[in-house]
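Repro:
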Amino acid sequence: MKDLLRTEHLSRADVDLLLDTAADFAQNPLRSQTALSNKSVAIYMTKPSTRTRLASETAVAHLGGTPIFIRGDELQLGRGETIADTAKIISGYCDALIVRTFAQSDIDELGAHSSIPVINGLSDDDHPTQLLADWVTIRENFGTDIKGRKFVYLGDGNNMTHAWLIMGAIMGAHVVAATPGGKWAPDAAVVTKAKEIAAKSGATIEVTNDPESAASGASVLYTDVWMSMGDPEAERAEKTKALTPFAITEKLMSLTEKDSVFMHCLPAHRGEEVAGSVIDGPKSVIWREAFHRRTTIQALLYHLTRGEIKGN
């Protein structure tokens, strides 16, 4: 597999390989410091970024490469040059491309026309690099035996919900997405895809509108901001009202297992999707989770540039 465009393209063997390598890079960041020697990686972002940008640039540097950061307004794409032409140009200069943008179709097109590996650093539909970081963190806390454990996402049925369901299905996990119904529910096609993968992996996929039932007996409670980049401001009041019952509070955490953890992809809005006492409390593993954005992107670059990700 040349690229990582969508979470669903990964096989269980791919994920296990990436998680093992990321764990190694966490212990020894410079283990493979010549892997990208004399090579460059373009990092193209049309959305603001803290973790993805820093993780990508440091990952490239730790592999001995040169990161080239490009903002959305710095390419000729803004003046009508096609995505296909842009992909071919970047492929002639660089050895990999990391993209953080709005439309998933743009990332898919970049992958189709690039001769170098393309990594989805976030789209409106998916966030595969975040889920790899999440699962390294999950393994650090619970090991590889997840039998009997429940992993729960609460909040907006957005790109994080989609990636959470798909990755959980790949990993053979019991995954629950607790969201409002209607327009803030996860995409039905994604839920169907997750259940298809689960039928082969042995995973259990649930979608519910009941946050307390979802949280009961959970090993992980996970959430994201309620207003994502690009969401219309006119919907804020309506969306906040719908999502308020899904906020992760001390009460909701009290329903979870004794060794449970709280996770968040960040940035966070304390007092909205999560109580400050939860995100800054003893069950929170958000900083380790954020740290692993670098280790997992480093693992992706290492294995994709070596042709070692096989796909499903």
